[in-house]
């Protein structure tokens, strides 16, 4: 049981390049999330998917798109990377049907945009 | 979701109890208190949550005041590996609970 996995672990992009961050969970959770964490700051929610087939904006969605490919996978796409998107990106999942919203996080993707 | 206030940092001696406070004076009736921690650069880890009763699990205890306006996370015997940033979060128990707000948290230093 790997929990939440993220790829890649590290990435360096030039301004204007695009990329997709991948996230997968093997806990059969309905809900998945993407957060970003800037140095010395707390996490900020980018997008979430309450259940397969749905996605909604979080606190800081501008510059990002997401796809809930199936119940296991939730990807985050940067169409045209900007230096302001340099951050650590965390994916998480939860199972609200259990009565709890506790989230399980992946190890993060460290992205630098030059 | 209600906002929370936590001290920016705290120290604790190894082997002693670490008591981390959190104020959530605007909490509403259906909002739960959750605690997570983040050990250097790793993804946050869920610790415990509660509504109004005190809760205990293998990691920690959560004490919520009767008026629910504040809570304390207790690590009964802190170790060096408990050095981390601890986040107190208040979130709705219904579908609005998807939008979790993580503040700056409390940076706990456990010292030998």
Description:
The complex is a heterodimer of chains A (114) and B (112). Chain A contains no helices and eleven strands. In chain A, strands 2, 4, 5, 6, 9, 10 and 11 form a seven-stranded mixed beta sheet that branches. A four-stranded antiparallel beta sheet of chain A has the order 1-3-8-7, with no helix packed on it. Helices cover 0% and strands 49% of the residues of chain A. Chain A has 114 residues and is mostly beta strands. Chain B contains no helices and nine strands. Chain B starts with 8 loop residues before the first strand and ends with a strand. In chain B, the strands form two sheets. Chain B has a five-stranded mixed beta sheet with strand order 1-9-8-3-4, with no helix packed on it. Chain B is globular and about 40 Å long. At the A-B interface, strand 4, strand 5, strand 9 and strand 10 of A face strand 3 and strand 4 of B.
Shape of chain A: globular
Q: Can you count the beta strands of chain B? A: 9
H/E topology pattern of chain A: EEEEEEEEEEE
The greatest inter-chain interface is formed by: A-B, 27 and 23 residues
Please state how the strands of the largest beta sheet of chain B are arranged side by side. 1-9-8-3-4
How large is the count of helical segments of chain B? 0
- Helix share, percent of chain A: under 10%
**Which parts of chain A are unreliable, with pLDDT below 50 for 5 consecutive residues or more?**
none
What share of residues are in beta strands of chain A? over 45%
Cα-atom Rg of chain A, whole angstroms? 13 Å
What are the main properties of this structure?
heterodimer, A: 114 residues, mainly beta, seven-stranded mixed beta sheet, four-stranded antiparallel beta sheet, 49% strand, B: 112 residues
